[in-house]
């Protein structure tokens, strides 16, 4: 069962600092084993963020503040949910497969819509930045194809 539990109030996450020194308020992310996910900045990773499980089993997302500084807050929020999806869907627990990135994108979009934070304007910004900035991956050859998959979720 997918576990992504929301506290009654939004928790202040140490996630995705952008150009300002303000943290964003996002719901706490939980992995498939109902463990809270920790978020840490790491400017050495070659992407916006990566979901991992540490050697002691702790779910973690490492995010690159240099990359997020160039992104719109809506896109940063999408990637918060996208990386959470990797944990919630157990991709970081050995269940990573071709299609996992597209599955994480769909989960992020559906979860954002479900909690009422995905407006049409925000979705337009996200898809524009995905077209412009997505690297080829195992689930899509370019950003335009990634957005086509996302539109079909």
Element order, helices and strands? EEEEEHHHHH
Mean pLDDT: 86
How many DSSP-defined strands?
5
How widely separated are the two ends?
Answer: 19 Å
Low-confidence stretches: 1-23
The helicity comes to 25-40%
**Sequence of strands across the biggest β-sheet:** 3-5-4
Characterize the overall form: globular
Number of helices, counting only DSSP H or I runs of 4 residues or more: 5
Q: Rg, please? A: 14 Å
Largest sheet: 3 strands, mixed
- Strand proportion, as a percent range, falls in 5-15%
Look at the helices and sheets and give the structural class. alpha+beta
Describe this structure in words.
- The protein is an alpha+beta fold.
- The chain is 38% helix and 12% strand.
- It is built from five helices and five strands; from the N terminus they run βββββααααα.
- The strands form two sheets. The protein has a three-stranded mixed β-sheet.
- A hairpin with a 5-residue loop joins β4 and β5.
- The protein starts with 10 loop residues before the first strand and ends with a helix.
